[in-house]
Each structure stands twice: as structure tokens, then as C-alpha cells.
Design goal:
CATH class of the largest domain: Mainly Beta
Strand content: 35-45%
Number of helices: 6
CATH topology of the largest domain: Immunoglobulin-like
Oligomer: single chain
Helix content: under 10%
Distance between the termini: 165 Å
Structural class: mainly beta
Number of domains: 6
Length: about 850
């Protein structure tokens, strides 16, 4: 014991002697030696003896020949400051002679620190309490050793514990004796004169088992303030290192899972927290009686995770590890020892002491609890150091929903969607009237699905969020109207084999498409537009075909069907202008389930035919499969319409249709009868017309007395005029109306003229405006007064006037009224 203490004392004395360095030595810089940015108060007189100027030359320049790239004045060579802005490289005393030596060499300082366990860095890692650690400093500060003998760069190391306490010294070990190492700039243990520099070389600077050091995370860094360089140039990586951490942990082995329960076809992860950089055996315990497909698998290719690669590999050593008496890991998993087995592995923990290992499951993984075990590897085992965690695998679920109200017309697109947490794909099939009992293919319901044959099902990949979607185009599907059931299954199994498979169903109603239509009016005036409006259910992509047939007239057009199933076709005013008066027929054709028109228009030899799709008409040869609509021998009017309907009624044609008629007439306007009106009244003039809605009509109401007069006679216009629009009627024809205010009217006969602004149609009538009607006063109670009888001349009744009395008659009537008034007043 005495001998060990003697050796320790001698070692400490040696270290102390090395540590005692003349501080003044590091301020004196020999000529041409290195100085560092941020240093102050240094003596560079060996390179520039008196006050003067230093010159720096950029790369490629020749000192003494070229002009300096930069100069710095030196007021006192014995007290020089290296400004951090000074360029790195050689600086010369001016004037500079060709071939002159540099006065100083400016360098950018660099410093870093590494905490090591032996020769392994544990920067930002985890160590086990009791590990012996030391520091190594890497820098370019070893240049200080050239400033005198002995000389070095004084640095310091500071360690901060989890509570924020800062250590400037650490308890270490020298030859088994606990020793405190001073890590300050004056302690002598961190004076850098080599690169790299081992702090207290040959000794353990930090014994993590020492009393002061509890579990937790510690941080540390090194800095150098030689000649004030850190004060003047405080830059991380330059005069101070970055801050690192180390976690002191107990020697525990802990295994955890990120999920206690997983739905199969879902991954999970196991995390091992144990000794840093140590090998551990990991396996799915007690699964040797299960099939390989039943057991969660360790994912291949993970960092620090070695699967069995054959004899001599780390993975094979894991399989040979004995965890209990005569029990090896390889014999405890499905398939035993096997190259590439995914049920056991050798796991190497990182420097932090942790390693996460990913496991995968699929739709075949058995729904039960599995035990994942890890042992610290010691050949051949057991080490006695292990931990276990349980993970339960459960069956997933499958759902399906249909877009909309689950009632669709053939030709519409249906979106099926849902969730599948049980497998990576979902398989769809359909059952219903006249389909295979075990299920039919959605893409072709006439064909049955085949159990386990995925190619006969609609297969959709499940997204990362467990959802799936499929758009079913029902156009062309050979389905009858009725109710059908769509199956979504986790595996490609038909309806007769769903006992052990997750699945879901949704019922949908399929309807045959249809078309309905109406004409905007029963009769259309020549030059007006006629609109055919309606609905075509079933989302026909070609739209609907509009056939118009009449005397010496034929037209066919297709019209797009909107998303709400509506359509509108305009027979333009230009078309009706040239049509003969009479009855016309409209047939609206829907392509139905096959989404194509089976009766079409074909032109052969200048003759236009209506014909069955695929039939080529022959000019001059009659057939039940076609007929001419334009050209020699064409059918017209009702004959053409009937022939077209017969083609669409053919059993080989699935198209449906609706038919309607309308009349083309010469345009006309009618004025309803107008009774006598009074001056000051307000009344409406109305009428009917076969002109279309929104046509503009000019209405004029003028006095029959409005005529040229002598310029010496005063005369005023009496009447009204304006423009009105035709509105929809409810009795077969459209209507119009015009409001008249007769306040400014004079008693007279008035002429009403209504004229279409665009069409060649007008109408005229007359009516009378009389003197204002007397106002009825409320009765007043007065004493009875005897009034002598009043004799009034007999009033001559005018002869029965024609339908409209003239202006003179009205004057006569007014005169008689005045006489009666005077007689009454006299009495």
C-alpha cells in the first residue's frame, strides 16, 4: 500500500511541475511565429522591432514586388492586438524586400473537446454509472508551444450537472487512488501544447461512480482565453467549443413497446434501454409451435439489428444463445435456426444505450398476445440480465359505404369507400338478381368471382391512413333493376368462404335510366325559338339525342345532360322562320345502359337515314332497320315519327325515348275586349299571343281626335305608350298586359295598337273614355224640406251609338249634362 501511495505522490509532483509554466512566456512571439485572432498585449517586436506597418498580400501576389492587399499600423510592437478582422496568413514588416521573411503568421483559433470511455467518444451519449472517463482536446493552439520553453495554451473545462451546478474540477483515479483534477486555466491539467491533447494523460479524470455524480445528464465544454482571445473573439468552435452532454445511467435493462395492442397489418416498435454499445439478443419468445405467418416479424435492414446471416454472424450467435437450461433462442421461434429468420436478432445499442427495433404484422398474424424478450449477450449464455414486454395483436375491421342515397340509375358512377385495418388490400364483389350466388365481378357482373383468385375481384390498395376507395362505372353493366349487395373483404374470398375473414356489405338499388321532356309552348310563332327541356336520369355520357320531324323538315342534335340530370335544347328562331305552319313531332332519345345510341343518323349517297346502329342503309331499298328522313322517298311528319319510334322499340335496342308535339303558326297578337273607362281611372289592357316568352311588344293608346290642327288652335296629346314583354300563359298561349293611367286623358274614343318589335304581327282595337265618374258622398241627416217639383225638359236620348262614339257625340252628352245642372241650381 505504501508503495502505491509513493507512486501516486511522484505522479502528482510530476504533473504539478509540468503545470507550472511562466505565464509571461505566452505573450512573447518569436519572429514569423503564429498569433491568433483576438489576442491582445502580445510582444511581436521580434518581427517588427519598432513602430511601423505590417503588410498582407493576397494569394497570388508577390511580397516586395506587388502592392500590399492590406496594411495595419503597429504603434507599439510590445503591446499588439490581433484584430479578428485581420486576414489569415503571413504579415510582413514594411518596407518589404523581395524574399523577406514574415513578421507574424495570423491564424484563426479552433478548439473542440471529446469525452471518452477508453478510446470511444461518449459525446452526447449515455454511460453507465461507474464508467471511467477522460477528456481529449483537439485544437490548433499547440502553436503556443513555440513561444518559449516551456509554453502552452491555457484552457479550461467546465462541467454542469443536472441541477445546474458547475464543476471546475472532477474526481478521477490515479493508479486506483481517488484524485481530484483541477480543470481551470491555472490548474495545469489543461495547458494545451500538442494536438490532440489528452487531459492528465495516463490518468482517469472522471470516475462516474464517485459520490458527487448522481444519475442524469451533464453538459461540458472547453474554452481558451489566452491573452484575452475569448474575451475579444467569443465564437463557438474558435475560442470556445460547442456544448456536449453525457447521461449517467444505472446499469439497468429495460424493454418497452410503443403499443400495448396493435391491429394486425400494423407495425409496432420495441425499444431497448441498456448499456451503451453493448450486444443484446432479441426474439419473439415461446412461438416455436406457431407457423411463421402467425408471428410478428423483425424488419430486415435496420441499423444495429443483425438477423441470422449464417455461421459466424452476429445474428447466428443470437440464435445459438442459451437463455435457460438447454434452451436456445433458435429453438424457441418458428423455423428454428435459419438464415434470414425474422424472429430473432442481435441488437447493438447505440452510444446512448438505446436501440429501437421495428416489428411488422400482416393479415395472417395470429390474434393473440406475444412476448418479446431481450438478454444481454454473453456467449454461450445465459447472462441473467434480461427483460420482457407483451404486445397483443388483434384482428382489424373492414367497413364500406356508398356515395349518395344508395339508389342509382344504370350509367351513373358510384363511389364505394371505407376503412380496412385488417389487411393491406380490400377485395370487392357483388351479389343480386340473376348473378352468381357466390358473388360476381363488379367490372363484369356476368362473370363469377373465384375464391382465393385475387384477379377475379376488384382489388384496391389500402392507404396509409387505413382508408380505401373505388369508383364503379355502371354504364354498360348487364344488371336488371333491383337491389344488390356489394361486399368488401379483407382477403379474396367469395360469399361462401367468409367465416374467418373480416368483411362488410352495403346494399344499393339499381334503376333503369329514363328521360322526360316538355316543350316551352304548345305553339310557336315563326321566328320564335322553341325550347325542349327535361331530365335524363342515368348520367348518359353521350347526352340525349333530339329528333324534330315535320312537313318538309328534319333536324337531329345531341344535347349534354347536366350533373343534375337536366338538359335544354333550343330550336332557334332562324329555324322556325323557315318552317311551314302545322304540327311537328319531337322524339328525345336516351342511350340507356350501354351508353351509346343504338338508333343513329347515317348519310348514304346524299340521302340521310335514321337507322339501327351497325346497319348500313341502301338507297332505294326498303327495310325495317332504317328509313330515309332527307332525300328521295323520305318520310315526313307523323309517318317519320312513327317509323323512328318503331326502330327504338326494337328488342335489340336498349334506348328509351319520350315524344311530344308542337305547332308552328304565323305570329299573331290578340287584344282582350276593353269596356268603357273614365277619366282619372287606372286600368289594364291585356291580351294573348303565340309569340314566345320575353318577346317585346309595343303598345300605343291614342285618342282618335289626335290629328293635325291649325297652328293657331291649342291642342294637347292624350294617350299612353310603352313596351311590355310576353309572359308565360296557362291556357295554351302566352299573355301580355299594359297598365294605363287615364288621369291626363280627355273624354274621347281611343285606339289601341299592339305590335311585335321583332315579328311581323300586330293588332288594333278601340275603347271609350268618359267624363270622370261622380263620387258617391256618405248620406247626411237634415230636417225634411218641401221641395217644389222640378220640371226638366225631356232628355232626348241619343240613338244607339255605334261601337265607338265619335268626338262630337261626346260634346253633345256633355252639353246636356250642363243644362240639367243649371236647372237644378235655379230651383
Amino acid at each position: 500500500m505504501t508503495k502505491r501511495l509513493t507512486i501516486a505522490v511522484i505522479s502528482l509532483l510530476a504533473l504539478a511541475m509540468i503545470a507550472i509554466l511562466p505565464a509571461a512566456a505566452i505573450t512573447v512571439v518569436p519572429a514569423g511565429e503564429t498569433v491568433f485572432r483576438g489576442e491582445e498585449g502580445i510582444d511581436i517586436s521580434a518581427g517588427i522591432p519598432v513602430a511601423g506597418t505590417l503588410a498582407w498580400y493576397a494569394p497570388g501576389s508577390t511580397p516586395g514586388t506587388d502592392a500590399p492587399s492590406r496594411t495595419v499600423s503597429v504603434a507599439n510592437p510590445l503591446n499588439f492586438y490581433v484584430d479578428p478582422s485581420m486576414e489569415e496568413g503571413s504579415w510582413y514588416t514594411m518596407p518589404v524586400a523581395v524574399g523577406a521573411n514574415a513578421a507574424i503568421l495570423v491564424a484563426d483559433p479552433a478548439i473542440d473537446v471529446q469525452l471518452r470511455r477508453g478510446t470511444t467518444s461518449v459525446n452526447d451519449a449515455t454511460v453507465i454509472r461507474g464508467d471511467l472517463l477522460n477528456f481529449r482536446i483537439t485544437s490548433n493552439l499547440d502553436a503556443f508551444a513555440n513561444r518559449g520553453a516551456p509554453s502552452a495554451a491555457p484552457t479550461r473545462i467546465r462541467v454542469t450537472d443536472p441541477n445546474g451546478n458547475v464543476y471546475t474540477s472532477l474526481v478521477g483515479d490515479v493508479a486506483g487512488v481517488a484524485t481530484t483534477f483541477d480543470l481551470t486555466a491555472t490548474g495545469g491539467n489543461t495547458d494545451v501544447n500538442t494536438n490532440p491533447f489528452a487531459v492528465a494523460a495516463g490518468a482517469t479524470v472522471w470516475d462516474t461512480a464517485a459520490a458527487p455524480y448522481s444519475r442524469g445528464t451533464y453538459t461540458y465544454k472547453v474554452d481558451c482565453n489566452a491573452n484575452g482571445m475569448n474575451d475579444n473573439y467569443d465564437v463557438t468552435g474558435k475560442t470556445v467549443s460547442k456544448t456536449y452532454s453525457v447521461t449517467i445511467a444505472d446499469d439497468d435493462l429495460i424493454i418497452t413497446s410503443n403499443k400495448d395492442t396493435v391491429v394486425r397489418n400494423t407495425d409496432f416498435a420495441i425499444t431497448i434501454e441498456a448499456r451503451p454499445s453493448t450486444d443484446y439478443v432479441l426474439w419473439v419468445k415461446g412461438t416455436s409451435s406457431l407457423a411463421a405467418a402467425d408471428v410478428p416479424a423483425i424488419k430486415a435492414g435496420q441499423q444495429g439489428v443483425a438477423l441470422d446471416a449464417g455461421v459466424g454472424s452476429a445474428g447466428r450467435n443470437a440464435g445459438l444463445y442459451t437463455f435457460a437450461a438447454a434452451q436456445t433462442v433458435g429453438a424457441d421461434v418458428p423455423g428454428g435456426l435459419a438464415v434470414g429468420s425474422q424472429f430473432y436478432a442481435m441488437v447493438s445499442t447505440a452510444s446512448s444505450g438505446k436501440r429501437t427495433v421495428g416489428f411488422s404484422t400482416d393479415q395472417n398474424t395470429k390474434d393473440q398476445s406475444f412476448t418479446i424478450r431481450t438478454d444481454r449477450y454473453v456467449a454461450p449464455g445465459p447472462s441473467g440480465d434480461y427483460d420482457e414486454v407483451k404486445v397483443r395483436v388483434e384482428k382489424g375491421d373492414v367497413t364500406i359505404t356508398a356515395s349518395g342515397d344508395r339508389s342509382y340509375y344504370i350509367g351513373e358512377e358510384v363511389t364505394f369507400s371505407g376503412v380496412n385495418t385488417d389487411s393491406s388490400n380490400v377485395y370487392l364483389f357483388i351479389t343480386g338478381p340473376n348473378l352468381a350466388n357466390n358473388g360476381a365481378r363488379l367490372t363484369d357482373p356476368s362473370l363469377a368471382v373465384i375464391d382465393t383468385n385475387a384477379a377475379t375481384f376488384v382489388e384496391r390498395t389500402v392507404r396509409g391512413d387505413d382508408t380505401w376507395e373505388y369508383k364503379w362505372d355502371t354504364s354498360g353493366a348487364p344488371l336488371d333493376a333491383g337491389t344488390y349487395t356489394i361486399y368488401a373483404v379483407a382477403d379474396p374470398r367469395d360469399r361462401n368462404n367468409l367465416a374467418n375473414v373480416k368483411y362488410a356489405t352495403v346494399s344499393v338499388v339499381v334503376r333503369k335510366g329514363f328521360v322526360s321532356a316538355t316543350a316551352s309552348q304548345a305553339a310557336v310563332a315563326k321566328g320564335d325559338s322553341l325550347y325542349v327541356r327535361g331530365n335524363a336520369e342515368g348520367n348518359p355520357s353521350p347526352g340525349v339525342a333530339i329528333w324534330v320531324l315535320g312537313r318538309n323538315f328534319y333536324a337531329r342534335a345531341t344535347q349534354t345532360v347536366e350533373d343534375d340530370a337536366s338538359f335544354e335544347y333550343e330550336l332557334t328562331g332562324a329555324a322556325t322562320q323557315g318552317m311551314a305552319s302545322g304540327q311537328y313531332f319531337v322524339v328525345v332519345q336516351h342511350p340507356m345502359g350501354n351508353n351509346r345510341f343504338d338508333v343513329v343518323e347515317t348519310v348514304v349517297g346524299g340521302t340521310t337515314f335514321a337507322n339501327m346502329l351497325g346497319i348500313v342503309p341502301a338507297v332505294g331499298i326498303a327495310s325495317t332497320d332504317y328509313f330515309p328522313v332527307l332525300g328521295p322517298g323520305r318520310l315526313q311528319g307523323s309517318d317519320a315519327a312513327e317509323a323512328l319510334i318503331q326502330l327504338m322499340n326494337n328488342p335489340n335496342v336498349d334506348d328509351t325515348y319520350t315524344k311530344l308535339t308542337f305547332l308552328v303558326e304565323e305570329p299573331w297578337i290578340r287584344i282582350d275586349s276593353i269596356a268603357d273607362k273614365f277619366v282619372g281611372s287606372t286600368f289594364t289592357i291585356s291580351g294573348t299571343t303565340n309569340l314566345g316568352v320575353d318577346n317585346d311588344l309595343l303598345v300605343e293608346v291614342t285618342s282618335s281626335a289626335f290629328q293635325p290642327t291649325d297652328k293657331t288652335v291649342s291642342a294637347e296629346f292624350s294617350g299612353a305608350s310603352g313596351t311590355v314583354k310576353v309572359v308565360q300563359g296557362d291556357a295554351g298561349y302566352n299573355t301580355w298586359s299594359f297598365e294605363v293611367d287615364a288621369t291626363g286623358f280627355t273624354p274621347d274614343e281611343y285606339i289601341v295598337t299592339v305590335e311585335s318589335i321583332e315579328a311581323d304581327a300586330s293588332s288594333t282595337t278601340t275603347f271609350n273614355v268618359l267624363e270622370g265618374a261622380p263620387v258617391t258622398q256618405p248620406p247626411v241627416t237634415t230636417p225634411p224640406v218641401t221641395t217644389p217639383p222640378v220640371t226638366t225638359p225631356p232628355a232626348t236620348q241619343p240613338p244607339e251609338a255605334p261601337e265607338t262614339p265619335g268626338f262630337g257625340a261626346l260634346i253633345a252628352i256633355a252639353g246636356l249634362g250642363a243644362v240639367a245642372f243649371l236647372v237644378l241650381r235655379r230651383n
